[in-house]
Amino acid sequence: MVRPSDGLWAVAVGAVVTFWDAAVDGEQYTDLQDMEGSAISEVKATEYGGLPRFLGPDGVTGMWADAGGSSRAWMQAHQVTTDTSTAKPVLDWLNIRDFGAQGDGATDNTAAVQAAVDAASAAGGGTLYIPAGRYILTGSLTWASGVSAIGAGARVSILQSMDQNLDCITGTDISDVTLQGLQLSGPGRGFGSGVRFPRFSSPSTTGITLRDLLIQSFGGDGVYGHQLAGSVLHRVRVRTCGGIGFHLQAPTDTVLGGASTSLVGCTAEGNVTAGFLLDGMAYTSLAGCAVQQSPVGYRLDGCTAVALTGCGAEQCTTGLTVYGGTGNTVAGFNTQESDGTSVWLTGSAKGTVLTGVTETAPATAATACLRADAGTTATVIGLTAAKPNTLTGTVNRIDPGDGSTVLAGKTIVPSGGGAARMGTAVLAAGTRVVNTTAVTASSVVQLTTQIPGGTVGAPYISARTAGTSFTITSTSGSDTSTVGWRILDPS
Q1: Which of 185, 188, 288, 322 is the most exposed place for a label (fewest CB within 10 A)?
Q2: How many CA atoms does the CB half-sphere of 259 hold within 13 Å?
Q3: Which tops the pLDDT comparison, 400 or 201?
């Protein structure tokens, strides 16, 4: 049996391929057999442009394949059993239809696809090809380490789960798996997940790659990964699942795993519980990801050094929640039409850095843009808020939208507006009330005479109402000077 030396070797549909002992001229091998044991001298390409399995001459470790083009391709021998009654021969690439899968939208394909997975696993790993079709599954597919699956695209290669309480693809303690170009569709209810990779005894679930997948209509999570490490989720779309779109969990029973995973261009739409939940993950990044219509867009729960870059949440009650953890960063984050809190820092989250967070068109019911609960510490740069901020934690702010800088809760660069910390006041009969919510019971208010008027006296603060106003009074009752004022907060 032969295989291409560089992986998958394809030719024109129906092409006739012959085999030779040299790249040019040479002798043709004609003592071949098909997998039924019949003698053949050439091979005809399948409807997919691939070569069917066949047996080559004994002792020959490679042959030059000629499909009638300008050059030949070198193909290496692949040792397999010749007892076709007990086992299927295994290649690096296996077409699941060779194992009986139909993809007709009616036949149960569970056993056939599982047989392909098991065959690849028994050979030490391999890649399944899933041609276009809708493959009905009445049971879960139990995946294995080293086995990958590639479809013809998420629009056409569809694994359709029918049991509402079973996962579509599941595997415990697995590693080095790629799923690409597939659609996983659920029954629209129940508890099953699209992809579920739990860890039981191994330190972590490593080398998982999910790329160009559409996962939809499962009663549970779209993707559940337990202790993922060194893994990539790229252009994965999860929609209308009853649980969480992307659920990455790293419990504290091991110091390994739950780290060094990246999510790029992933989207979560209309999932019932949340878009993205990262529980205990570390050194993990989300870039260019988006959530629509979930109660929580993103939740970082006890995470360490997780980074969100260029992500957004639309029509979510809470766009982003950072619960506990340390050193998490958010850059270029946008919330749109939030009906609760755009960004919520809680659970004593430490060292959170928010840069370029923008709140756009919050719903009428929205209560706050940024909420930082007591015990949290954060640095905020360039926040654009449409709703008020509720900051009871320690928040260092630079340019919060009114021209001020606040370090450790104390403003060091004055601002204007309703919470003005500096301005001028024209005295009338030696007095003037200045309205500003910035004044506190312990504020220091500096006064200077800017433009003398009337009988000039010495201005001083004669009264104050914390959070409302203060009163400037001159020692001269006929003072009409313009007085400059500035509020400072003592440390």
Answers
A1: 188
A2: 10
A3: 201
